[in-house]
Structures are given as C-alpha cells and as structure tokens.
Amino acid sequence: MILVMGTVQVSPEALEALRPAMAAQVTASRAEDGCRDYAYGLDVLEPGLIRVSEAWTSRAALDAHLASPHMPVWRAALATAGVLSRDIKAYEAGDGISF
Question: What is the rounded CA–CA span in Å between residue 59 and residue 83?
Fold first, then answer.
C-alpha cells in the first residue's frame, strides 16, 4: 500500500473559494480504482492549512491517479488560490497495526 501524507497552506481568505474544487477532487479521486482512502482535513488551529491523507493499493494506482484528468483541474485551482507552502510525501506501507 502507498500512503500519501502532507499539508498544503493557502491563505484563510482563499480557502473558501477553494472548497468546491477540493470537494470535486476528493469525489473524483475516491472513485478511482485502487483508492482506499482520500481526504482533506482543515486544521482547527491553523487557518488555511489543509491536511492531505491518501491510501492507494499500489504505486501503479497512485501513478494512474496523478495522470487522471481531474489532476490538472485541481492543480489549476491550487495555483489560483496562491499556495503558500506544500509538503506532501508518499510512503510505502507494510502490514498495519490495529489499535
């Protein structure tokens, strides 16, 4: 499994305009083959901070996601929002531990 975790920071003012694009991106991504989980969370203490969390069944599934037609639309929306910082990384995960 491939886990994608990270953050994207935009100005709090830009966040509201970005919400429809965020919803469209999450909806389209969750429908893709190999998507186990795809979520954006807004940090309750840091306005404009979006926490990214994704789980993919394989690197091939993540690669297909990155090449999907909705990715350029999402990237354009982010560019319009004026990203202040972005730190997103992919990790290969082994067997998980249940708590």
Answer: 26
- Could you tell me the pTM of the whole model? 0.90
The CATH number, out of the four listed (3.40.50.2300, 3.50.50.60, 3.30.70.100, 2.30.30.100), of the domain defined by the range 2-92: 3.30.70.100
H-run or E-run covering 75 = helix 70-81
- At residue 94 the predicted structure's pLDDT band, cuts being 50, 70 and 90, is confident
Q: Which of 42, 52, 46 is nearest to 6 (CA)?
A: 52
Dist CA 35 CA 55 (whole Å): 6
